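User: Okay, second chain of the day. Same drill as before: sequence in, structure tokens out.
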Amino acid sequence: MGIADDMNDNENWTGGFYELCLVLGAADDDNVDRALRSLWRAAGLQGCHVRRADGSGFAVVEIGVAALHAHSHLCGTLTLPSGARVVCGGFLSRYEGLDTLELYLPLGALARVDRRIGGYPFDESSGVESLTWRSTLDRWLADVAIAVYDAVPFHRALIGFEVDEDCGISGDERYAAVLMPGADGLEYHPANA
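Assistant: Same drill. Structure tokens below.
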């Protein structure tokens, strides 16, 4: 096990989250369950763990919507396109009858496997130059979203730093990548800022 995929190393969970946000639609536990299982498969997540209430590490749980409701965050590890393994997690947001399922990659872990990340999004190299590493990660997360969409269609997907369903594709500057359903499946609009 490398340092960036050690779930018990608290430094891996720092710095905020780089996320794939799937706006699923109307609240529906069966839909969430299918999307969660598809997301875990498509991203190649290993394990399904939750933090122990006493803070003594993680416990293994059965993946599914019941675990999301009981524990709010599910954690595991995955392999990035670079071949590096990192910790990751997922959670469900249910707000005003709308389900949003998120896969997150902590920046603490990402920065340990790619020096270009540095203090993103708060340092001097967090503007357009961050697209040098973000574009590959965004494209991979977009492919994960497309695989989920093939199994469980959703309203849209967003990729970026702590994105939420309120992000859109309007305007010239797009800080988040966006996937929207189109005539031929999902249309990918990469981040450009």
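The mean pLDDT is 93.

User: Thanks, on to the next one.
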